Every structure is written in structure tokens, then in C-alpha cells.
């Protein structure tokens, strides 16, 4: 079975255009939260950094000399700072799962609101464990060669979607089912990513991801749904806030 990449993109644009509330509003809330968490993490590492410097770093407008000067101030973080940074990273992971859930529901024409972004916290430990297991597997494959690591990333691509669709499944089961779904489609997924290369580069501009990330993720979800054989609204669970 060959997936029509253009059709997946067209369906993504239509679903985003029709959904209320706007997915761009939810993406903006998500981006703001990530920005705040990232700024907090930077402040923990550099307590003396100013707001202007934070904005300059985030926007990429800081000179190399100033960046090197600030980097030289980074010392060995204490235990409390390290724990707080780990907590921030975990929150970012779970919020990422919440955004994936928003995109799943938007693609399926199911209810999704700003509150859906935080539904991932109901699966906190399952999401974290899945991310850890996938990270370990990708790292182990990457130790062999770069290419096997990249292939592993594509192999586990749908594991998070599978978990969100059925939270009763364990991490290894989600990974195994993702391997089965992506079998014979990894090349198509790679081409899909290449077709979004320009969008990915634009995402580096602050808050442009509000427009680019939903489009890329909903298209990715449509690819996942196409392999599952879904037509129209899914029969899966409806997540409501």
C-alpha cells in the first residue's frame, strides 16, 4: 500500500481549517508554555541573565561574542537546579504528548481544546517511560552507525500515537506495533519529512512554529491513520477536556 503524500497534506489543511477552536490558538498556547519553560531552565542555569538577553538568545539575535561570554559563566549546577531542569524536561515531554493528542483529534474531527494539551499529564509515567525506552533503543542503534539510529527513529515514529489511542498498552507493545505499522513505509516517511524541509527551517524562527508545527504533525497523524485504514472520523477514544 502506497500512501498519497499530497492527499495527506490536503486532508490536514482541511481538518485544521474546519476545527474549532483553531488549532493555531492551541499551538500558540503550547509554544508560549515551551518558551516559558525554556526561559526558566536558562534562568536556573544562569541566574544573572536579563530578560533582554533571554529574548536575544531565543530570537537568535545575540552576537557570538556575547553568547560566548554568557556561556563562560555556566558552572556546574547544584542538585536542586539539576532536579528542576529534569522536571522541566519531563514536563516538555508530556506537553508534547498533549499536543500530539490535539493533532490526533483534529485529524479525526474529534473535540480538542486548549485543555487537551494537558491531558498528557494523565498518562505522565506512561509517556515518560515510552520516551525513555525509545531513546535508549535509538541510542543503542546509533552506537552501531548513524543510519541504523535514523532508521530506528522512523521505526518507532507512531509509538506515541499508539499509546495515546490505547493507554493500556505498555511501552514495548507500542514500539512493537509501531515497527509493524512502519514496515515498508519508512522510505515514504523520509520523503514526507523532506517535503517539509522548508517548513522545518522556518520553525527555527521564534513562534513561526505556531503555523508550521500543526501542519506537519496533523499530516503525520494522517499518515498514521492511512496505514491503520481509518476513513473519516475514527472509532477510537474521544479525549475531552
Describe what you observe in this structure.
It is built from twelve helices and no strands. With 241 residues, the chain is mainly α. It starts with a helix and ends in a 13-residue tail after the last helix. The model is unreliable at 232-241 (pLDDT under 50).
In short:
The protein is mainly alpha-helical and 241 residues long. It has helices at 5-18, 23-45, 51-59, 64-71, 79-107, 124-144, 146-155, 159-165, 171-182, 186-195, 197-202, 209-228.
Q: Could you give a short account of the major beta sheet? A: none
Order of helices and strands: HHHHHHHHHHHH
**Separation, N- and C-terminal Cα atoms:** 36 Å
**Radius of gyration, taken over Cα atoms and rounded to an integer in Å:** 19 Å
Structural class: mainly alpha
Secondary-structure blueprint:
Layout: H1 5-18, H2 23-45, H3 51-59, H4 64-71, H5 79-107, H6 124-144, H7 146-155, H8 159-165, H9 171-182, H10 186-195, H11 197-202, H12 209-228
Keywords:
70% helix, 241 residues, 12 helices, single chain, mainly alpha, disordered C terminus
Amino acid at each position: 500500500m502506497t500512501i498519497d503524500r499530497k492527499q495527506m497534506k490536503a486532508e490536514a489543511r482541511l481538518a485544521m481549517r474546519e476545527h474549532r477552536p483553531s488549532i493555531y490558538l492551541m499551538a500558540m498556547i503550547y509554544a508560549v508554555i515551551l518558551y516559558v519553560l525554556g526561559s526558566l531552565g536558562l534562568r536556573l542555569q544562569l541566574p544573572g541573565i536579563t530578560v533582554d538577553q533571554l529574548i536575544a538568545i531565543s530570537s537568535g539575535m545575540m552576537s557570538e561574542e556575547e553568547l560566548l561570554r554568557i556561556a563562560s559563566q555556566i558552572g556546574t549546577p547544584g542538585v536542586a537546579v539539576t532536579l528542576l531542569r529534569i522536571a522541566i524536561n519531563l514536563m516538555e515531554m508530556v506537553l508534547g504528548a498533549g499536543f500530539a493528542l490535539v493533532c490526533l483529534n483534529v485529524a479525526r474531527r474529534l473535540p480538542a481544546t486548549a485543555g487537551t494539551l494537558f491531558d498528557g499529564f494523565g498518562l505522565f509515567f506512561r509517556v515518560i517511560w515510552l520516551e525513555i525506552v525509545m531513546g535508549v533503543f535509538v541510542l543503542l542503534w546509533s552506537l552501531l552507525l548513524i543510519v541504523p539510529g535514523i532508521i530506528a527513529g522512523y521505526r518507532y515514529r507512531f509509538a506515541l500515537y499508539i499509546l495515546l489511542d490505547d493507554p493500556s498498552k505498555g511501552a514495548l507493545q507500542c514500539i512493537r506495533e509501531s515497527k509493524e505499522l512502519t514496515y515498508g513505509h519508512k522510505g515514504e516517511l523520509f520523503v514526507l519529512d523532506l517535503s517539509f524541509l522548508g517548513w522545518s527551517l522556518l520553525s527555527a524562527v521564534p513562534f513561526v512554529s505556531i503555523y508550521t508545527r500543526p501542519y506537519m504533525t496533523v499530516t503525520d497523524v494522517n499518515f498514521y491513520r492511512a496505514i491503520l485504514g481509518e476513513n473519516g472520523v475514527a472509532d477510537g477514544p474521544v479525549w475531552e477536556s
